[in-house]
Structure formats: structure tokens, C-alpha cells
Amino acid sequence: MPAPIRLRELIRTIRTARTQAEEREMIQKECAAIRSSFREEDNTYRCRNVAKLLYMHMLGYPAHFGQLECLKLIASQKFTDKRIGYLGAMLLLDERQDVHLLMTNCIKNDLNHSTQYVQGLALCTLGCMGSSEMCRDLAGEVEKLLKTSNSYLRKKAALCAVHVIRKVPELMEMFLPATKNLLNEKNHGVLHTSVVLLTEMCERSPDMLAHFRKNEKLVPQLVRILKNLIMSGYSPEHDVSGISDPFLQVRILRLLRILGRNDDDSSEAMNDILAQVATNTETSKNVGNAILYETVLTIMDIKSESGLRVLAINILGRFLLNNDKNIRYVALTSLLKTVQTDHNAVQRHRSTIVDCLKDLDVSIKRRAMELSFALVNGNNIRGMMKELLYFLDSCEPEFKADCASGIFLAAEKYAPSKRWHIDTIMRVLTTAGSYVRDDAVPNLIQLITNSVEMHAYTVQRLYKAILGDYSQQPLVQVAAWCIGEYGDLLVSGQCEEEEPIQVTEDEVLDILESVLISNMSTSVTRGYALTAIMKLSTRFTCTVNRIKKVVSIYGSSIDVELQQRAVEYNALFKKYDHMRSALLERMPVMEKVTTNGPTEIVQTNGETEPAPLETKPPPSGPQPTSQANDLLDLLGGNDITPVIPTAPTSKPASAGGELLDLLGDISLTGAPAAAPAPASVPQVAQPPFLLDGLSSQPLFNDITTGIPSITAYSKNGLKIEFTFERSNTNPSVTVITIQASNSTELDMTDFVFQAAVPKTFQLQLLSPSSSVVPAFNTGTITQVIKVLNPQKQQLRMRIKLTYNHKGSAMQDLAEVNNFPPQSWQ
């Protein structure tokens, strides 16, 4: 058989292929020749054939048929054969294939070989693809080589030990004695691999970390090595761009970060050397910037001195001025992580951060936007909002939603005045109205409603904002609502904040009618406009007939929602005209719904700290509750029953009371008292158990069980199950116990469960067992619901779930209609 072509000739031939098909033909032809040579057990050219096979493997062609040939080369006595054999084993074999176990004995023999280069090949292969079985069998040999005086073998043995520890963590203690003298080595290769080994051990075992901190005194040794690297003169062997062995410096800094985390003594021991590295490292080259970045991360992660942290943030500030985009991005990301802990130090670089908003790179722009919002506080709100509104005008569409949302939140938190707040929100709606969140419209309406002295100014500004431009639908919706509410103020020209404009009733109606017929108006916007026109029938005096005509026209609209509104408004004009003025009277001041958490943050971003709320025992006497219920109109219509609170409420009746507080106030205090129903709901004699604060008492003494449970909700990893019990003493009462479980990998926090039932039922929610749903189904939240069903009607329920998960606020509604008959019959 003729001698096979050399690897160099094969590479030259393959490169001459003009098409993919031609290349595949050459490869297939050569593979056939290699297979024939393997079948003939040709020992002379086996090494050459495996080398060619590895090249084909690198090109993406199958080469698995050469696995056994690699083992034969490893067993050879020639170094050239072993070198190709071990290389082939690292490329073609892994621990998923049983063939690799055949190498164990060969590797063991080679680890004890008299030639250091053969030992090095065996160590490289074991450290690259050794399985847990191989690591257990060969760990003793690796540990012996780790103690040898040969630097070439020690550095390879250290890296191999890292792989062994990753595969079999329980073997970590075997290498502990060998680590004692590793850092005394002068060879930089051994030092580097030793630091890698020590880092792996500290990261994987808290016991090892404590041992190295206390017993081995590892920090002083690392400080000494790092100091020698900084102070040493020029060394051509280790110099990179004028810095001595930056790779070793970075590794040492990472290990110091692990050792100093949450440890005062270790942190204090490394403060001086970190300051020296931060001040003596040259920043003109990327090598120096890499060391400075690791130094900053170490300073921010350990318990360092305040002056050192300021120095670290100033280094990141210098990074923001660098021409390299990657360095600027890294600096912004690091500042974003540290802004909450060192807010004042980051504030000094605010102008530089704002300048990054003008960067052409979208990644830098996004990080700069996020950091700018984190820097906003009550002292700089006006200046920062000016810059961010300018950014909102000019940024790409993908930024507008996040930027608008951030401006809304910042304005709500730090607004210096109501007028400034309203102007800012209107500017956002004018600039990026199509990108704002769904709650922007109701939030702005609520803000305007509560700013009584600003009504005339606001309606005038909004009227001018939508003249001839209906492209920003949220802005048009707010404007329509305000014109409907305060149209009389617009026409009367009572604005004091700016020069009033002269507007007639017909001009106002012209604007609203043009909104109704505009092609840009959505169904929701048309609904706002039609309702506004209807409201103006009680605010205007000369155009009521025109309003009647407009409303009657839309009684035959193809839009069902619009048609229903128009029909109902027509009925108001005809049958219930005497009630029209009362029904369409101006909206009262709205109370903002707030959720009380464990802490109440008055000001953030460097101004004041969160103030923990005082936990007080529930009072023994009655107390009024003011917690607003989020479940208003949850079931739709008027047939919603109030939740029976466990503490009394007292509220004056008001006009249209049946539309207010449909579910009443929910109180979780558990104080026993009698709770009167809302004004529009007739008083019902309630059984005592519905009014008792039974948070710590057994619910019933005689309970009928055996009712099948149901899954009421299962979505996004959250599962809600209902189990049922019936009282023998009062069969009209059903006790439902909910169990909430979480199958995701992260906890769900601030979990709140709420429920509503039709008006023929009475419902009471007791306090939940917790507000955190543990991950991986490791625990559940339980909560008891008591339902009074005197008419034995089929039970149906709407539920609302609110929680935080993966840093986002989640909210969902669901309807439960599959209650078992035994639970209500």
C-alpha cells in the first residue's frame, strides 16, 4: 500500500477546493484511505493518519472512528505518537463515552514516567477530559506531582488538581497539605496555577475558606506577592506593556476578593496594597485598565475603608472618559451596582454619566440611562429631568418605553411641585405617548384631579396640546377626560398660571368630535371623547342640543363599546334627565392606593435611609380602616358582595354609594368587632363566626370533610389549590383553605391573595401564613377564606394575585367556576 499523503499536503489540497461539494469529496476520499490503513493495523503511519483525522474534525467532519487509534498511540513508547494520541483523546473523547475509561491505566503509567514531557501530556489530558471515576483513581498521582520540585510539572499538576476538585469535591482535602508551599515558589507559572487552585478551593468550600483565612494566613502571602509584582523592575520574561505579569496580578486580586468578603481582619490586611495598586498602575494601556477594574471590584466587594471606595469610584469615573467603548460600558455597569451603597461618591460623576446618554453605542446609552435614573433625587430632579427629557426626544424607539417609565416614577417620587409634575408628565405624553405604560393615563388623571388649584391651567395646556394632533393617544385620552371634567373652566378663561385663551363651547365640541372621527383614534380614545361630550351637557349651557345629536348618532355605531355608551347616554337624556346632573357631577378627589410593606422609604438615592415601621399590637377596641381595595368592579356590574372585614369601619354614606367601596375595606388586624355593611347594602344579621378574629383560634369544632380539592390557578410556576370544609352547626358556611406553591427557582415575595364573590354571598379573608412563596415547592402559603352562602347558589369567585418575582412586580386576575357541588349545595 502506498504511503499516505502528509498532513501539510492534505491541508494544501483541501484549500484548493472551490466548492463545498468538492471539499466534501476530498474529505470522504481521504477518510476512506485512513479507514483502510486502520483496518490493516498500519503502525508506521498511524500517527500521521490520526493527525489528518484531527484536522478534519476541526473542519467539522465526523472523526469518531479514530478514537481507538488514539488509545493505541497513547500506549506507544514514542513521544511523537503519545503527543498525537493524547491530543486526539482530548478532542475526540469525553466522559460520556465509555472508551475513555480504557485510558486510565495508560495515564497512570505516564504520570509515573521518567520523562517530564510525557508526564505533562498525561496531566493535560486528565485535566481536560478526566471523568469523576478517572479523577478518583488518579488523584493520588496528581497530588504527588504537586509536591515535586519540578516547576514544569507543578504548574500542570495544579491545574489538573483544579479539574479533580470540580469533578470530585470530596477529594479537596487531599490537596490541602500540598498547597502550603505553593505560594513560596518563585516561578510565575506555578504561582499563577497555585492561585487558581486556591481560588477554586475557597469558592467551593466555606470550611477551606475559613482555614486559609485563619490557619494558613493566606492574605499576607498574597499581599507580599502582589507588592513584589508592583515594585519589581522591568522583567522581559513577564512584562506586558510595561506591567509585570498582569495575569498573575488579576488572579491574586480575585482571590483577595473572595478572602476579604464579609471578613474585617482580611479586609484590613489588604487595604494598603489595594490602594497601592490603584494609584501605581499605568492606565495608558488596556493591561493597566484590566488590573484597575479587578482592583475596583475587590475594593467594592470587601469591607474596605470609605476613602478607598471613593478612590475606586473615581477610577470608574476616569474609565467613563476612555475612548474604548468596552471600558466605558464596564464602568457604567460597575457604577450601577455600587450606586446604592456609595451614592454620594457616584453623584460626583453625574455630568460624565449624563454625557454618555449621547453616545452612539446603544449598550452604553442604555446603561447610562439606567444609571441616570438611579442618581435622581430631590436635589437634582429638575436638572436630571431636563437631560432625560432631551434624551427621550432624540433616543431610538426601543429606549422610549423604559425612559418614559423611569421619568414617571422619578417625577412621582421627587416632584418639587404639582405644576412641575403635571408639566413633566404632559411633556412625556407629547413626546412618547405611544410608548408609555398602560397605567400612565389613570395616574395622570388622578394627579390632575387631586391638584384642585391646577385644574384651569391643566385643561388649557391639554386643550392646546391636542389641537390638530391626535397621534399620541394617551395624551388625547387625558385631554378628553379633563375637557369633559373641567370644560367650564376652559371656556370661562379662569387660568391664572398663564395667559388664558378665549375658547367657545362650539370650539371645544369641535375638538372632541374630531377626535371621535379621527382615523388615529382607538376605540378607547373614542370612548373617552364620547363620555367627555356627555359630561359637557351639564357644564355647558348653549350646546346641549348639539350634544344630544352627537350622542344619538353614535347609538348605531359599529363599535359595540361606543354604541353601548351612546345608548345609555341617550337614555339619560330621555328617561332619567332629572338624574343627569347628579350622575355627571365633577369627580371627587381620588385617594391613591398604596401598599404597606415592611419599610417605609421617605426619600432614596442618597437623601435619607429607609425608616423601619414600628410593629404595634392590634388595638383591643374598634379602629377605622382606610386600606383601599384593589378588586373594585372585579366581577363587573353591581352584584358584588363586600368582603366582611375583621375590624369595623365607619364611613358616611354618599351619593351613588353603591358604586363606591363595592368590596369594602379589608383589614387583617383580627380585632373582634361587629362590622356594619356599606350604606347601600342592607344590614344582614351575620353569624358570630364570620365576625370573630380567629387568626389564632381553631375555626370549627365539628367539621365535615371529604370534599374534593381543586386547582384554582396554575401559571408562571405559581399554583393555587383550594381545599374545602363544611360546618355541621351551620351548613351555609364553607371554609376554603388556599395553598400557594412555587415551582420556579426563585422565591416569590410580597405575595397578596384577594378574592371577590357575587352579592348573594358573604366572604371573609383571614390573614395569610406568610408573604413569601418559597422556590422549588419547598413550602406553601396558607390562607383561610370563609364564605356564607345562605341561598345555596353555585359558588363563583374572582381572584387577584400580586407578588414580586425575579425583580418584577407581577399581577394577575383569574375566575374560579369549577367549585365542587359538595362545597355549596
TrEMBL record:
For membrane topology, the record states:
Peripheral membrane protein
Gene Ontology BP annotations:
intracellular protein transport; vesicle-mediated transport
- Provide ranges: composition bias, Polar residues: 595-607
Instruction: Supply the alphabetized keyword list.
Output: Coated pit, Cytoplasm, Cytoplasmic vesicle, Golgi apparatus, Membrane, Protein transport, Transport
The UniProt entry, under SMART domains, shows:
Alpha_adaptinC2
Q: Which SUPFAM superfamilies match?
A: ARM repeat, Clathrin adaptor appendage domain
* Domain GAE residues, every copy: 705-820
Q: Cite a GO CC annotation.
A: trans-Golgi network
Q: Which InterPro entries match?
A: Adaptor_Complx_Large_Subunit, AP1_complex_gsu, ARM-like, ARM-type_fold, Clathrin/coatomer_adapt-like_N, Clathrin_a/b/g-adaptin_app_Ig, Clathrin_app_Ig-like_sf, GAE_dom
Annotated localization: Cytoplasm, Perinuclear region; Cytoplasmic vesicle, Clathrin-coated vesicle membrane; Golgi apparatus; Membrane, Coated pit
Q: Where is this region: Disordered?
A: 595-632
* Gene3D superfamilies (UniProt xref): 2.60.40.1230, Leucine-rich Repeat Variant (1.25.10.10)
> Cross-referenced PANTHER family, in alphabetical order?
ADAPTIN, ALPHA/GAMMA/EPSILON
What protein family is recorded? Answer: Belongs to the adaptor complexes large subunit family.
Q: What job does this protein perform?
A: Subunit of clathrin-associated adaptor protein complex 1 that plays a role in protein sorting in the late-Golgi/trans-Golgi network (TGN) and/or endosomes. The AP complexes mediate both the recruitment of clathrin to membranes and the recognition of sorting signals within the cytosolic tails of transmembrane cargo molecules.
Q: What is this protein called?
A: AP-1 complex subunit gamma
Name its species.
Neomonachus schauinslandi (Hawaiian monk seal)
